C-alpha cells in the first residue's frame, strides 16, 4: 500500500465511523429527551394536564437541573420533551429494546389509535429522523397529516427547514386536494430563497367558515364569514400577515371601486413580504377581467399607498374554480404580481390521502 493510499483509507475510516458515532449519539439524545418527557408526565398527578401546575413544575425542574450542570434543559425544552413523549408514546418499544425495561415504567400515556394509518416502525423513525424533526412533527395535531409528514420527510430526506416549510404551508392538505401530488411535494425540496409563489397557497382551505359547499352564498357572505373568522383566516394565509381593511375604497374621477380585503405582510418570517396584499373574492370561476381589475388596484396602491421600504403590493384573487391556462394568459406580462388561488370550504378526503401515504410508505428506503 502506498503512503497516499494509507492516508485515504485512514481518512475514510475516520469519516465513516465518526458519522456513525454522531448518528448513534443523536439517536440516544432523542431517546433521552423522550424519557425526560415520560418521567415528567409520570411525576405529574397521574399525567393530568393542568397548565399552571405543569409550567411551575417545569420551571422548578429546569432550575435544579441547571444547578446540577445538565445543559440545555430549560423549561421551554422540557415542555418540548413532554410534548414529544405525549405525541409519540409508541417509542416506548424502541427504548426498551435499546436500553432495557428498567428505564420505562409500566404506566404510560395511552397509545394513539394508529390502526387506520399506514404503518411506520418507531425504530425506523428514530434511525431516520433527528429530534429537531420530531419537534416539528409534534406541531401537527392530526395523526394522518403527521404520518404524511413523517413519510415524506424520510422519503425525500428533508432537512428540518424543509419539513418546517412543508408544515407551515399545509402541504398535507394541499397534497390531499391536488391531482398532481408529486409536483406539490417536489416544491418543498431545496433551501432556495423563499419567493412569493411559495407563500401563496393553492388552494386555501376555508372549512372553518362553516359554508356548505353546495349552498348558495354571495361574495358578501364569503367576506363576512372571513371577517367573523379573521383569526382562522390569518392562520390559513400563513405567518406574517395582519388585517388592514375591508371594502377599501379607491376613487377615480368620482368613480368608486372597492377592494374586498387588504392585508399587510410584515416581513416576518419571510423578508419577501413587507408589502400590501390585496384580496379579491369571487364565488364563481375566474374570469380574465378579474386580473385586469386586480391590476388596477395594485397600480393604485403602488402609487398612492406604498411607503418607503415597502415591496410592491401583491394581488390574490380567491375564486371557487379556475382554468389554469386562462389564468396564465390573463396574468402574463402584468407589471404587478397577481396570483389566482382556489378556495375550498371542505377539508380534503382523508381516505384518498391515506391511500397516497400508504403508497408512499412502500417506497421508503
Structural summary, described in words:
The two termini are 36 Å apart. Helix 1 packs across helix 3 (75-87), helix 2 (51-67) crosses helix 3 and helix 6 runs parallel beside helix 8. The longest helix has 41 residues, at 3-43. The protein has helices at residues 3-43, 51-67, 75-87, 92-99, 122-128, 131-137, 143-155, 160-168, 171-177, 181-186, 196-199, 219-228, 230-237, 288-304, 324-331, 350-361; strands spanning 204-205, 241-252, 255-265, 275-285, 314-321, 337-344. It is built from 16 helices and six strands. Helix content is 51%, strand content 14%. The chain is of the alpha/beta class and 365 residues long.
In brief:
With 365 residues, the chain is of the alpha/beta class. It contains 16 helices and 6 strands.
Q: What Rg is obtained from the alpha carbons, in whole angstroms?
A: 25 Å
Number of helices: 16
What is the end-to-end distance?
36 Å
Number of strands: 6
Structural class by sheet pairing and helices: alpha/beta
Number of domains: 3
Q: How would you sum up the global shape?
A: elongated
